[in-house]
Amino acid sequence: MLKIDRIDSSKGASRIVKYNGIAYFTGHSARPGFKTLKEQTAAVLARYDELFAQHGLKKENIIVMNAYLADIKMIDEFNEVYEAWIDGVYAPAGVAVEAKPMGENNLLELQFNVAYDESEEA
User: InterPro entries attached here (predicted)?
Assistant: First the structure.
């Protein structure tokens, strides 16, 4: 039987699914109150920092990044914040596309897949 861990599950999705050394995150958007794409990007990345710490994951082990932007013309605003956060040293494979993020007034939905060492799990 496969060992698949589903974390913070609801009826239709899990916040994280861990399988075979990869943590697959659902997309995350900023909470209400952040107006600009830069603010929303910083807020979502701060939330990922919290989630990574909570689940023993490391930013340098991100293998895939998917960014869904309400307006692809705003990619430079996203990249400015994201590239400073990822620091370029461990840049993952990634894609940014124009799509309607979930939630009213959201300009961004961000999703990561992160490798982890299964032997380090408690």
Answer: RutC-like_sf, YjgF/YER057c/UK114, YoaB-like
Predicted local confidence at residue 88, as pLDDT: 80
Q: What are the sequence ranges of the domains in the chain?
A: 14-117
Show the DSSP H helices in 1-74 as ranges: 37-54
d(CA 10, CA 12): 6
Of 90, 36, 10, 21, give the one whose Cα is nearest residue 44.
Answer: 36
* pTM of model > 0.90: yes
Of 16, 118, 116, 122, which Cα lies nearest the Cα of 59? Answer: 116
Place of tokens 């605003």: 77
CATH fold of 14-117 reads 60s Ribosomal Protein L30; Chain: A; (3.30.1330)
HSE value, Cβ hemisphere, 13 Å, CA-based, for 88: 5
Cα–Cα distance for residue pair 117/5, rounded to 1 Å: 14
